[in-house]
Amino acid sequence: MKTQFNYDGVPVEALEGSMRDFRVLSDTDLVSRCDAFFNWQETRRHSGTWPFSRSTETGPAASCGVRDDRGNLVNGVNFASQDYLSLSSHPAVADAAREAIDVFGVHSAGSPALVGNTSTSVELERRIAEFLNMKEAILYPTGWAAGFGVLKGLVRSHDYIVMDALAHACLQTGAQAATRNVSLFRHLDNEHCRDRLVAIRKRDPKAGIMIVTEGLFSMDSDTPDIEGLQELAREFGATLMVDVAHDLGCLGEDGTGHIGIQDMLGKVDLVMGSFSKTFGSNGGFVATNSRAVKEYLRFYSPSCTFSNSLSPVQVATITKALDIVESDEGKQLRRALMNNVVSLRAQIRARGMDVYGDPSAIVAVKTGDEALARMTSRSLPELGLISNLVEYPAVGKGQARFRLQVMAGHTAQEITAAADRMEAAMKAGQQALETVTEPFEQRLAG
Description:
42% helix; Aspartate Aminotransferase, domain 2; 16% strand; four-stranded mixed sheet; 17 strands; 16 helices; Aspartate Aminotransferase, domain 1; single chain; seven-stranded mixed sheet; alpha/beta
């Protein structure tokens, strides 16, 4: 029997493999085929290298208590929540939610195509459109639904989608559901996008084409040349769609994200986004300069047509968050956020580590090897840092990272603590991988 080694008590099986290994399973029993994944998950869970499916005790505060999925409680600085301007606990946002309950109750009780709208949701659509300097906007129950729904709603099987290779899973899934004609271009490479468009137009001069990208890519914290992509769309008779989930509200002097920073407000064909990163709630939207597109999506975008509308509480929360984003307080919060971001990036680098991309609320700390990343994740809870491990296939193989999600409400002390604890965990992970032992039972057998 081949000897299987442990690394400081962690079995090698916990450090190998990925979720991609279990995506396609051949067992005929749809229930029992899940066992293989669960067994691998359990190995990681019991060795402390499964850092997913956790729950906060008191909401996504800058420091809070978190339980892992075995029920173990840890307290620490929280860099794992998407609450970039710290609006989910803002008193004015909470007051707006309570007032909405008094007037509308807690449930929309209908689809946007029927009677699921409220006067406040109609007003929020108008506000979002104005914020982006566009004519129309339509709401979706989640950001995922908006990303999936705008592609599935507008693209047909004979059309084409040309998409940045690192676009979000909701966009990838929506594209696959809409057409087989999906062509990926190299990340941020507009010339490669052009090559894809040239090839499509040679074989199909009249097909519909949607170009898909993001304003800010959440795994790498980088941004495309949006104007260049819009020019390509015009040149090739295509439609550009930009996902602004991670930059709208929290980046730019006025909060309009990279579309605003690049002077493209009102100039992009389609803009979709999520409220779950900056606006204190679930939900999403698609903005357009065409009333016809809005109405078509209302009845032909399945994740809109066949889902209940946002609840009145969510609408009130988002609307009040938007009020703050557009106010002087919003500017102050964005400056506080960016100060924290710049400080954390500098402190990470000062400790001999490195980060991806440009300054944003996402500070992705480079780790590389999946085994090192998992061993590092094992140490983080006891050190008091709550962070998200991102590993293959969510990122490329050998490009694992810890995604520290920064909030405006983090203090200078919490920023320093995050850098200190990440450094300590990385060193502990490296040391653990150098501590190789045989399992006790196999040493006896030998």
